[in-house]
Write a structure and sequence with these properties.
InterPro entries: PhoU, PhoU-like_sf, PhoU_dom. This is PhoU domain-containing protein. It comes from Iodidimonas gelatinilytica. Belongs to the PhoU family. By secondary structure, the protein is mainly α. It has a single domain, classed as Phosphate transport system protein phou homolog 2, domain 2 (Methane Monooxygenase Hydroxylase, Chain G, domain 1), CATH 1.20.58. Helices cover 88% and strands 0% of the residues. Helix 1 runs antiparallel to helix 2 and helix 2 packs antiparallel against helix 3.
């Protein structure tokens, strides 16, 4: 009975980490969407909301890292479990960076509001939406351990980068 309880509590700890990642991903997606909307609409209030909301993502990253390290220290996981825990730390760091980038877009928005109108980049909202979809899809691939879906996101990312390079060359 102890083994079942131990396994159940271990699974619960992993589920808690997955829940933190899911919450972070949702916040990162929302931050990105709001930052781009604020930029395109020159909405200072929304930009300020994005800047203030970054603290929540920072907190969740710290919580995910601490929880993953605690599980590693207490459970001494091997193979797949250890890789999942290390990946969790890396993913939470990447989601936190997305929040930081969104905050930086919002900070620039507050400065751009007081400048002359700039030529709108019509592809920016579409690129942001694709980035949001990729965040969702790659996290789903991680949680479901679906390598085909993860490779598909990687291919989409490569195509998006090529598109961005082509756009910057033509601007």
């Amino acid at each position: 009975m102890t083994d079942i309880h131990t396994i159940k509590s271990y699974d619960d700890e992993l589920d808690q980490l997955r829940a933190i990642l899911s919450e972070m991903a949702g916040l990162a997606e929302m931050q990105l969407a709001n930052a781009v909307t604020a930029l395109m609409a020159r909405d200072i209030k929304l930009a300020e909301k994005v800047i203030a909301s970054d603290k929540k993502i920072d907190f969740l990253e710290q919580r995910a890292e601490e929880k993953a390290i605690e599980v590693i220290a207490r459970r001494a996981p091997l193979a797949d479990d250890l890789r999942e825990l290390v990946a969790t730390i890396k993913i939470s760091n990447a989601l936190e960076r997305i929040g930081d980038y969104s905050k930086n877009i919002a900070k620039r928005t507050t400065v751009l509001v007081n400048t002359l109108p700039i030529r709108q980049i019509s592809v920016l909202p579409e690129m942001a939406q694709e980035a949001q979809r990729m965040i969702t899809d790659v996290l789903d691939a991680f949680i479901q351990r679906d390598s085909t879906r993860a490779v598909n996101v990687w291919a989409r990312m490569s195509a998006l980068i090529c598109f961005m390079i082509a756009c910057s060359a033509n601007c």
